TrEMBL record:
Name of protein: DSBA-like thioredoxin domain-containing protein
Pfam name, any one: DSBA
GO MF annotations, alphabetized: oxidoreductase activity
UniProt domain DSBA-like thioredoxin: residue ranges: 6-216
InterPro entries (alphabetical): DSBA-like_thioredoxin_dom (IPR001853), Thioredoxin-like_sf (IPR036249)
Length: 224
């Protein structure tokens, strides 16, 4: 069986990456239940990207979007929220638009550390927990208590999570290097890259479930 890595490049505060992750999860589940699953094993790997590396530690989300994305126009903001809600609902996601935003460096640091030390399954659960907390509960994306709670949801002990989250130097140099590396090739997220025997296929933007399925099937067909 061919072992393929699916690299998902994201920022934990980007709604389009959340939608893409939900759709990719559905596509992977569909592929894994098909006869083609015997030819390829897909492992999800996460690469960090910061939409705004200079973002402050904390900002009111509604106000920040109003000022920085919608030019102070409340109607435009309402249209955006309605549009995103319509996209999210079929995926089982109840989006919230209130709460706090913040710099995501330490969220990425924690994800990358545990991806390296605990493996892809734990990293996947951690990403899902962070997404849900930010987009569906309105929680800050990188406060210590939020990161620790997400780690515990992912199966990491509270003691180990507290140590890694609390010591801001653990994994910091590594994640900064990875962010620099990723930013050389990526200027928008999400990006999904599927490795194949003959070629890699890269999809930019939040694609529909069927497009992810077709890509997984294409790689499988080329890998036999």
């Amino acid at each position: 069986m061919y072992e393929s890595q699916v690299t998902f490049t994201l920022d934990t505060i980007c709604p389009w990456t959340y939608m893409a992750k939900k759709r990719l999860d559905q596509a992977l589940a569909k592929f894994r239940s098909s006869p083609m699953a015997s030819s390829v094993s897909y492992t999800l790997h996460f690469a960090p990207y910061q939409l705004n590396p200079n973002f402050p530690p904390e900002a009111d989300r509604l106000q920040w979007y109003l000022d920085n994305k919608h030019f102070g126009d409340a109607t435009t903001q309402q249209v955006f929220q309605a549009h995103m809600t319509n996209i999210a609902e079929p995926l089982g996601v109840a989006l919230r638009f209130d709460g706090y935003m913040g710099n995501t460096l330490h969220a990425h640091r924690v994800v990358q550390y545990f991806q390296s030390s605990k493996g892809p399954e734990t990293a996947n659960k951690l990403i899902d927990a962070l997404y849900e907390r930010y987009f569906e509960r309105g929680e800050h994306p990188s406060r210590d208590e939020v990161l620790i709670g997400a780690c515990v949801e992912a199966g990491i002990s509270e003691e180990e999570a507290s140590k890694v989250v609390g010591d801001k130097e653990i994994g910091l140099a590594e994640v900064k290097a990875k962010l620099r590396e990723v930013s050389r090739d990526v200027d928008a997220v999400p990006v999904v890259m599927v490795e194949g025997k003959r070629r890699d296929i890269t999809l930019t933007g939040a694609k529909e479930v069927e497009e992810y399925v077709k890509t997984l099937e294409k790689i499988a067909n080329e890998s036999t």
